[in-house]
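Open question from group meeting: does this chain pack into something compact, or does most of it stay loose? Before anyone orders reagents, we agreed to write out a predicted structure and look at it together. Recording both the input and the output here so the notebook holds the full record.
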Amino acid sequence: MGAATTFHCDMHEDPAECPDSLIAYNEITDEYGLAIHDGGASVLLIAHCPFCGCGLPESKADRWFDEIEALGMSGPSDERLPEKYKSAAWWRDAER
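Structure tokens returned:
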């Protein structure tokens, strides 16, 4: 999974544009997905590794939205969003 999520193509700056980019990882919500090459950045979320079948981490999306809502923010495009909520820092710090 590590190699698939860190895949870099020299021909495509955006992984969504590269047909060889198969696995997407969202570090903010700790979610993995299969890339859907439909002209956008769509992914089909997965709960198990497609290579070995082992379970992947539970999504942290609901927790992320709950925390930013508790801070009085409307969503990811809110300009007041603290920097830590723009990366995995918000959940990694909490798990230490």
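Observations to bring back to the group:
Helices lie at 2-5, 61-70, 89-95.
The CA atoms of residues 25 and 32 lie 5 Å apart.
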